[in-house]
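Forwarding these from the shared drive since the link keeps breaking.
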Amino acid sequence: MFENRIKELRKARGLTQRQLADAAETSQQQIQRIEAGNQLARFDLATRISAALGQPISKVFPSAEVPLARMKSRTAGLDHQKASQELEAAGLDIEPDVWTVKYKLRGGAEGNFPISGPDMHRLNAILQDDAESGFVVLPSVDRQYAVNLKHLTFCQLLFDRPSIEDDAAREKSFEVHFYLTDSTEPLRFEVEPDTSLLEREEDPDPLSVQLQDLFYYVEMGADRRRMSFVDLDGERAFFRSDDVSMFSVPLWLIEPNVSDEEDDETKGDQNG
C-alpha cells in the first residue's frame, strides 16, 4: 500500500471524495483507491489532486519529496530509474504514457485491459525472461487480473497519451471471471466482497479474505494447488490451477478499506 495525506487534507478542506474527484477531473473510484493507498496516482492526476487540495505534491505524497527534489535540481549523475522507483514507492506513477495489455489466451479468449507504467515495465521484464512461469498479477482500472503465462499465447503492450479520466460511475460488479484453457468465454460467479485485509490480519477467517487469497497463492507460485472460493449462494467452486488461463476479480471486492470509506462518505452525504 502507498501512503499519502489525501484523506487528511481533503477532510481539512471539508471536501467529500466526490467533490475532490470533480475538482481533479477524475472519478470518485479513482480517488477512493488512491486515497486508500491501493493504486498509484499518475503524475498528471496527482498534480490535479494536489491543486484541488491547495497543497504541493510533496505535501500530499510526503515520501515523494526527496526524489522530486532530486529530479527538479537535475542532480549530476541522477539515476532516473532509481528516482522513478522511489516515486513509485511514494505512490506516484511518472510514466508519461497510458499502457494497455492486449492478450490472447490458449483456448481462443482475447481482449485488453489498461495497466500502470510500473506494471508495464514489470510485465515487459517478465515476458522477456523465458524462465518465468506461473501467474502474473496485474491491477487494472476496475478489476485485478491473474494471467497464467503458460497459457498466454500472445501479448502486446500498447501505449497512448494520457487524457482526462472518464468520470462516469462504474456499476459495481460482483462477478468473478475464470477463463479455462479450452474456452473462449469465462465462467462467471457472483461472490461476496472480502471483509478483511489479508496483509493486516494475522489469522483471518478464510472466508473474509478468500478473494485476496486467490491472488496471494498464485503470486507465491502455488500454481498447482486447487483454487477455490464460495459464491454468493454459499456454494464452493474448485479449479485446477494449471487449467486456468486467467482469472479476474472486481477491485472493490478485494479492497474492504476502499468499500468502508465509500460507505462512510455515502452516509455522511445522506445525513447532511
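-- next protein --
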Amino acid sequence: MRSFIISLSLLAGVSLATMAEAQDARVRIVATGGTIAGEQAKAGEYGYKAGAFDVQQLIDAVPNLNKLAVISGEQVVKIGSQDMNDEVWLKLAKRTNAILNSNDFDGVVITHGTDTLEETSYFLSLVTHSDKPIVMVAAMRPATAISADGPGNLYNAVAAAASPGAHGRGVLISMNDELDYARNATKTNATRVQTFASVNRGPAALVNTGTINWFQPLDKKYGRTSAFSVDQLTSLPRVDIIYAHPSMSVDLIDAAVKNGARGLVIAGVGAGNMTQPALDRLAAAAKAGVAVVRSSRTGSGIIYRNNEIDDDKMGFVASGELNPGKARVLLQLSLTKTNDVAEIQRYFNEY
C-alpha cells in the first residue's frame, strides 16, 4: 500500500476553484473490488490479487479527495470483475437505487474491475432511475504498482459525481482522464491504461485533475426514461453469447438451448454474419421462442436490420451499435418484459 500512496503525490496540486464548486456535494463510494483495489504478491511482479484493499483504504489513499466532496463509502463485494454475475448485478443495482433515492447523498461512485465494467455499467444505466450522477471507476494497474492509474481515475470520478454537469447524464465511466457514457464505452486493450473508448462515438467529457469539459449528452433512453426495473427481480433470464468463426457448427447453439437459454447473442463475423448451418439452426430456435440477436465480433460498427441476413424472415433482432456483451445485457432485461421479437427490436433501437 506504501507505493500506492507514494504514486498519488502528484494529485496534491488540485484546482481550488474546482474544489470550491463541488466540495459540499455528498458522494457515496460503493466498492466491488477489482484491479483498482488490487495488491501485487511481490513488488514489480505482474500478477496481483484483485480486491485486496477495502473502500476506506482507497478513500484514505487519495490526497485531497475529501476536498472535492463529502465522502463516505461501503463495500458491496470484493471480487475480480471476471467473477461478476447476475446476483451481484441485482444487489448492486438495488443498493445504488437506494442510495440515489436517499436525501443523504448527491451522487454515487462505484469501483469495479475493468474486465466486465462495460456490462455492469450498461446494466446499471438501464435499471437506475435518478438524475443524480453515477460514475463507475476502475484501473488497469493494481494499487501497489508503480504509477498506478486507479488514484487519478478515482479522483476524477468523485469530481464528476460532484459536478452539476453530470446530472441527468446516466452512468459514466471514469478512466484515463476521460468520461464515457456506459452505453458507448468498451474495453479495447488487455493491458494499456487507455483501454476504454467510445468506439462508435466520442467521450462524454475530458477530465484534467478534476476539471471537466463536457460534450454532447447521450441520445438514447436510460435512467429515468428507462422502462426496466430490478425492484421485483430475484434473477435474470439466461442469455448466452456464441462466437462465430469459419466452420462454425451448431453444437453450441443446441447446447445453449437445451440447457435453458432464453436468448442467444451471436458475435457474428463482419456485419453479424455466420455459417449457413448456424443460421438455419438459429432460425429454428427463434421459431421455437428463443430470442436471437445478431451482433459483431469486430468491436465497432452498426449491425443494421435485414442487411446481408433477412432478419424479418429468420425472426432475429439486429443489435445496432451494441457489442455482444452489451447486447446480452439488454436482451436479458428485454426478456423480463416481453418475448415479442418486434418489441425487443424496438428496445435495441431505443436503448
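The first helix runs from residue 2 to 6. The longest strand covers residues 70-79.

- D.
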